[in-house]
Amino acid sequence: MARPPGHGAGYETKRQEIIDKAAALFAEKGYAATGIAEVGDAAGLARGALYYYIGSKEHLLVEIQDRVMRPMLAGVHRIAALDEDPVLRLRLLSQTLLENILARLDHVRVYEHDYRNLRGDNRTRLLSQRREFEGVVQQLLVAAMEDGSFRRLDPGLATLQFLNMHNHTYQWVKPGGEWDARSLSREYCATLFAGFAGPGRRFDDIEDHVSDFLAKRETAAPVPIPRSSGRA
Amino acid sequence: MARPPGHGAGYETKRQEIIDKAAALFAEKGYAATGIAEVGDAAGLARGALYYYIGSKEHLLVEIQDRVMRPMLAGVHRIAALDEDPVLRLRLLSQTLLENILARLDHVRVYEHDYRNLRGDNRTRLLSQRREFEGVVQQLLVAAMEDGSFRRLDPGLATLQFLNMHNHTYQWVKPGGEWDARSLSREYCATLFAGFAGPGRRFDDIEDHVSDFLAKRETAAPVPIPRSSGRA
Amino acid sequence: MARPPGHGAGYETKRQEIIDKAAALFAEKGYAATGIAEVGDAAGLARGALYYYIGSKEHLLVEIQDRVMRPMLAGVHRIAALDEDPVLRLRLLSQTLLENILARLDHVRVYEHDYRNLRGDNRTRLLSQRREFEGVVQQLLVAAMEDGSFRRLDPGLATLQFLNMHNHTYQWVKPGGEWDARSLSREYCATLFAGFAGPGRRFDDIEDHVSDFLAKRETAAPVPIPRSSGRA
Amino acid sequence: MARPPGHGAGYETKRQEIIDKAAALFAEKGYAATGIAEVGDAAGLARGALYYYIGSKEHLLVEIQDRVMRPMLAGVHRIAALDEDPVLRLRLLSQTLLENILARLDHVRVYEHDYRNLRGDNRTRLLSQRREFEGVVQQLLVAAMEDGSFRRLDPGLATLQFLNMHNHTYQWVKPGGEWDARSLSREYCATLFAGFAGPGRRFDDIEDHVSDFLAKRETAAPVPIPRSSGRA
DNA sequence: AATGAATGAGCCTTCATTCAT
DNA sequence: TATGAATGAAGGCTCATTCAT
């Protein structure tokens, strides 16, 4: 379980490579239906060597979940803390969410399908992270209701509608396909914000605000989405 | 392998019972992670007897998928064929969809998660049914755009937004919980229709139309949602 | 782990047969160095079928320990409770002990060598049984000291001397070889009792008392030592 | 495989240290159940470096057996060759035997339990050493019978009684515990010699003879029992 | 003198499935 | 109809050992 204390230069690189390969396989066939041997084959490693890196099959799953949840939570908290209009923050959060989904599509599929295979602490931690994530979204929605941007909705159900719309995307979107995160976010939010809008409210210039914000950000400090390989 | 040609009175009953139990287990732990022995235990049957009813583990999965897809498609086609406004038909379709999801929550979870374990024909047929289903939704959305109810949207993405919103519901809804199909449908459609609305269009009286329609239907011919046990 | 609730006529027989074979193999090569596959080969069973009977490798070890300890403790308690002179009871206990050792020589070897491979409850229970056993011997030795038969010895060390002498026998005795339980017991006790004797005490007629006692017993009720196969 | 021909200053020291650690681990968990990695951890050495010192796991076992048998045989032969009464020589041999057992308790446990894991020549040599050892004891016992000190006993069984009593000690004695070699030897021999005694023979002054002998020895030349680390 | 990385056989165990009864 | 018994492949994982550096 514990990795050997000293490991050479290439160790972590190789380790991340293995997790990549595993994520792809788990996404394709499901965690339970994928054998460790297949992961070894994909990584070009014999079974024994594999365990030198991974500890256990479940640990592999934990790392994949982490790769999804860690940057997602970080991004979401960063955006929620911005000094901007709640609706703009929701739009930015939507885009970050979709960027993360698109950047690690197979990881997300594993994250959504296979968390049932986690047990004990790992499972508990995952579920609490999900709740934390939902909490942030809900707070923004409530803020938007309170300032009149949105009509009075059941906060829980509004959150779930927002998340339904975004989180199911992984089921059909293709990497490098027709849709990128920004366009998707634009469309989703156009629907949701018009659907949630308070009386007399419209959000026609929201995309301009987004452009402004992103331009500001980019000149200040770029925030890259990490690629699938390499720790978040 | 094939079901024995002559079977007694209780055969089909017992068979359906077994599929029920299997669906519950597969939903909880995943298809691949659930053993045939567990199904046998849950059904109170030894392994040998189980195979007398089920043929194979994969066949069990096929039956569960069928139980989801068959009534879903039937309902959707029935509604699409109605001589009603496209927006009302979408609202009715939404409700049917949610009724089916809520009536067979565990089946739906299996349907969404485990179709990757199907192979060959079974898989092909399933995917084509999904496309068929999406086609119907898309046609209604296009019809609503054409009569000006909805603004001009990318038809594919509009469909996916509609389906995202509905199909992700199984991930959090609880049977016998806070939300029933009709309330959920009302809320989802309030958001989606306002979000999709063409210029100057509102759908404030849509729920009245729904009430009227349902009242008519009920006096004419009840269309029950079949319970989880028993063939569709 | 739990054996199936219903099993046929031959189940228990076959199970005992497997434990026999396992005991022989464990005795020869050691528990840890013996593979489950070897047990399967010896029992003429494929690996899968083996597990239908045994539950786990450790469970096999537990059963072997039980087969040693259960009749041993039963015999020892039965004899300690007799209304006879302490020295005679020690002599009878010695014989029972040796009878048990000789009757299940390979089991005893496993019992002495491999209990370290037990963990948790199984280990705890075993150790407490050992202490219980030693307690009975020590009480008899103390009784013999108190009535003057034996000189005043350190009770703990006297017990250990008695047990050293008997328990190491498994390391060299051969089943069906030169020595049977009664002769061995006679010789061991001749040495020990003369060695332990109080001033002026001799036990020249102890073997006559043994003969009398055994004759009495046999006419009353024979107490057979169970063979290696079959539960105690 | 063979030790490298040229090795530096600390090589042998480190090698002995590794064998020490291995003996402790083998004693605790058994040879077969102990991994080479654990030995490496205990010695603070990576697996590769370990093999630089040990050659193979079985070689480690051979060395441990040697550390037990070599000084044991040497001591026993030295004592048997003394020009003293056979009974005194047996008493001295008993003490040496127990000193060796106590000095290397874990080695002895390995020696008694795990010789079955040796194969080929290593095993043969070990067994012949054991027979050699028993032969010496038996000769002394026979000598004591022939001079009338002991009664006429079956020589083989007398030897085995002597060895049973001593060799089982490792199973319960604790290093630094209540009993040291000299006290144990005194008690064991008190029992055995009185038990073996010929008609009218007593050995009341044997401990005085022991004291005399040891005093003589010590002034002449100390014969230290080597500590667990360091070759015999 | 020591290391990290790799191997591949073997470990115990579980699995879906079959079949005589 | 239903069972208990059996199979053999595959499951995840550990092992002693090697070797380039």
From TrEMBL, chains A, B, C, D:
Superkingdom: Bacteria
Secreted in keyword set: no
Ranges of the DNA-binding region feature: 35-54
Domain HTH tetR-type: 12-72
Entries under Pfam families matching the protein: TetR_C_24 (PF17932), TetR_N (PF00440)
Keyword list, A-Z: DNA-binding, Repressor, Transcription, Transcription regulation
PANTHER family hit by this protein: HTH-TYPE TRANSCRIPTIONAL REGULATOR RUTR, HTH-TYPE TRANSCRIPTIONAL REPRESSOR KSTR2
Protein name, entry field: TetR/AcrR family transcriptional regulator
Species of the source: Streptomyces hyaluromycini
